[in-house]
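Hi team,

Filling in the usual template for the complex we talked about on Friday. All components are listed, including any nucleic acid strands or ligand strings, so the model treats them as one assembly.

SUBMITTER: L.P.
PURPOSE: interface mapping
COMPONENTS: three
RESIDUES: 798
SEQUENCES:
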Amino acid sequence: MAMKHLISIDDAQINLLLNRASLIENKKIYLDHSRKILCNLFYEPSTRTSSSFASAMYKLGGKVISINDVNYSSVAKGENLEDTIRTMGTFCDAIVLRSRTAGEAARAAFVSEVPVINAGDGNGEHPTQTLADLYTIHKEFERLDNLTVTFVGDIENGRTVHSLDKALPDCEKHFIDTFDKSIWPASDVYYLTRVQKERGSEGSYRMRKEHIQHIPENAIVMHPFPRNEEIPTWFDNDPRARYFQQMRNGLIMRMAVLADIFSNEK
Amino acid sequence: MAMKHLISIDDAQINLLLNRASLIENKKIYLDHSRKILCNLFYEPSTRTSSSFASAMYKLGGKVISINDVNYSSVAKGENLEDTIRTMGTFCDAIVLRSRTAGEAARAAFVSEVPVINAGDGNGEHPTQTLADLYTIHKEFERLDNLTVTFVGDIENGRTVHSLDKALPDCEKHFIDTFDKSIWPASDVYYLTRVQKERGSEGSYRMRKEHIQHIPENAIVMHPFPRNEEIPTWFDNDPRARYFQQMRNGLIMRMAVLADIFSNEK
Amino acid sequence: MAMKHLISIDDAQINLLLNRASLIENKKIYLDHSRKILCNLFYEPSTRTSSSFASAMYKLGGKVISINDVNYSSVAKGENLEDTIRTMGTFCDAIVLRSRTAGEAARAAFVSEVPVINAGDGNGEHPTQTLADLYTIHKEFERLDNLTVTFVGDIENGRTVHSLDKALPDCEKHFIDTFDKSIWPASDVYYLTRVQKERGSEGSYRMRKEHIQHIPENAIVMHPFPRNEEIPTWFDNDPRARYFQQMRNGLIMRMAVLADIFSNEK
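RESULT (copied from the run log):
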């Protein structure tokens, strides 16, 4: 049974999606949804996420209607979220929704006649990011348990950190909210996130040589991007860097999610 | 003979388009215009109309270039409408034009080498909206004459009201520019439109129970959307509500219009 | 050997591209790149250029992700050009880049894993405009040497003028930076460009009857558009006017460039 909506990571059958993503990546299945239309409905702009979904849909053969800043567009002119969702649902086969407030994706799904995929609802969830992260880890270690994961950066406000933490219940986790601490615990995964520069001096938000020398050889370094100075660009060619692959994995996982959702239809 | 341009409802062969829309809706014809490119050229944003045309074009297999706010884009940098039209006509097979001033769509058609579809020219016309309205009424009553139609809302400034009124010469019409009047005349169609809130207190712009109890069982309630408070959301599930269907009919009618226009070519 | 990137006109095999454009225009070859995705990444808006590339890509059967004002979009949020390029390169098969500063296209190509096409980098180059100009001249005269070319308008700041000048080493060239001079030298090509109105009175930026009467019968008048008052609209139907054809040639040349770049892949 495929998903109807993807609002929370709890809606996702993770193993099924990891497997499907792997089949797609290794070209073991060919998908064609050339008569399907996806709507990217973004109440705040996120070119990265919007482009990733657009590319995923195109790679499935489909079409995309992109509304990249609903607030400045007429669809929202005195209109409640529910009417906008039902309107756009008339024109497309699935809606990718980026909204400003936690819970709005669930509200949208409640009235929508087409599947809704949550692409971030304020400080709520962003399940396809979490799935991309899980796929990246699983490709590396062939499991999602018995791993040590160290989160570094803005732990408190990090939506991606909270969601990934929740999705890895059987791992050992460390949380470090500063780059000042020069020794990071030995881990399989280092998950760095953006730090607001307003919180202090610039230098302290950068992964430095003294951190890197403690990162084990077989560990991986992830970052949901965009980055500020957390990771110096000279590290990009380090064999432990996985953030660009992580982005590519996000694309493949979004293909898997869309294919799953479209497979639902008779 | 198909239309060259669709500037005014007078350009449309209404019966032919109603028939073609019905064939499309009932999947009696399959259309493929996969090598055609449509340009949405919007001098003021209207995501709803733009998305409806984009979806229609995609469902015909075609491609879409969307320019959603020409005023902020470089195409208009010191450029007159005619040059912009001739430029965009170089890149596409038809232009959907939303402009600010009545008569601009006709000016565009005059110089354009590709068909121009008027998607609203200021307080002029918006013929595909009118065609969508006619299709909605025709689907319900199987005729466009000998019906009673009551227009409620902003009658004076309502472009959609004027156009639909003109397109229904053989119907009996009532015009009510307030929601305060608690008894509405018995009618087949109630066509509500948005009221500017600036004109008075909020409460008076809402269809209330005392209105609804006088709406006959077989009547339909339409609204070109977006709505403010004119129609309470609890009415959405009422069997007389037709505004979401009206939106879907708009999509089908736009497919019919595009197919008609493309059939013109050798 | 096809191009990897197109940053400067020096990267282009001009004869090969002129020939390929001609084959495309005369429908001697049919190209299908329906699984390819192009990204229009515009750091400043240019609807004309963006639409021309989108149309070219659509005519090759492909798909387009359009980011029309990166500065206002989240992709650039504290992100350097290199990260944005590598991010977008994850989602597409080629990037068309419009940037603000000379040299940025080369910087982008340096890190990009997909081909980069320079669609104007500040006062640097805009090679597909130059190729479109060359194609227009070549179609007319069947050669690119032994021609007399007169440039009129903003010579000093005209990126298109500099590039075309450089690309026609074996022609005789005249440069006129005012419209006041009433006699223009006899030439094969008159290449007019936009003049900033701030530089003086309006009247002096218009091609007038006394200029036109000296333009030989077999000469052509070009303009990269948009125009202000440099060319009066009544001249549009003159048999010597080539600026609308020039725009159409730009579309065909962009098809040739994209096809060349995609032919590079195994």
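MY TAKE: Chain B has a mean pLDDT of 92. The two ends of chain B are 12 Å apart (CA to CA).

Thanks, L.
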